Amino acid sequence: MDKSWKERMLRLVATPSLLTIYLAFLLFPLYWMAITSLKNNSELFVLPPKWILTKPVFGHYIKLLSESAFLIYYRNSLIVSLSTTLLTLLLAIMAGYAFSRFRFPYKGFAMLTIMSTQMLPVVSLLIALYAMYKSYGLLNTHLGLVIALTTSALPFSIMMMKVFFDNIPISLEEAAKMDGVSRTGILFRIVMPLSKPGIFAVGIYSFIMSWDDLLYSLTLITKDALRTLNPGISIRYMGEVAYDWANIMTVCVASTIPIMLLFLFFQKYMVSGMTAGAVKE
């Protein structure tokens, strides 16, 4: 009895302690990035480093928000990310529903082919993609970047939507057919409302993937006025010899705000969407 009580107490203390250490390990880079953006450059190289911020300096944020280039990059990233998310959702819902409900020749092979594209590294596609975009006049256009990012996000998105549609009983659709509802009406009025967690999960995944993209946007966009945030940061704010670390951390903090807001407001849908279909009855 005494041994059992000691084991329960050990688990009661050890589990929260380990979780706290693990959480601190994950959050420390974000904490250091945030306090670095609120320091003067003269304080960044002091030894021993100042782990706790006592006098925050907001001059870097004021300077950043007054720069038109940063605001242009930010706007471009929002346009590209939102456009990619909407296009990915539209195509993934249609394709996922088709793979879930319709029978057609080589269905399994088609799904395998779509998923196999995820095995190719982005770098291996860039040269051919650049040549093709140059031929069709899609270089230095947001449309071309949105198409590239959408094709990159689609395979996983289609698979996720198919899993959600597979878990919706076909009897609901059969009942709607008997009431005279068309196939399109069944999809938009019955199936999609029941798949909200999956739709939110796919939307968040697409937005994060496009917001964090560097290689596609750095290769396909060369005009400064059309650049998105990540290549803009790497080209404008990071020098070859010296770095203004406080300014760079300020830009990084500002660039993480949309992602933090997404997780703050939609984490419930994200978790339920990612775990859907993991266990089937």
UniProtKB/TrEMBL annotation:
Keywords: Cell membrane, Membrane, Transmembrane, Transmembrane helix, Transport. The keyword Hydrolase does not apply. Gene3D superfamilies: MetI-like (1.10.3720.10). InterPro entries: BP-dep_ABC_trans_perm, MetI-like, MetI-like_sf. It is a multi-pass membrane protein. The chain crosses the membrane at residues 12-34, 78-99, 111-133, 145-165, 186-208, 245-266. CDD domains: TM_PBP2. Belongs to the binding-protein-dependent transport system permease family. This is Sugar ABC transporter permease. It comes from Paenibacillus marchantiophytorum.
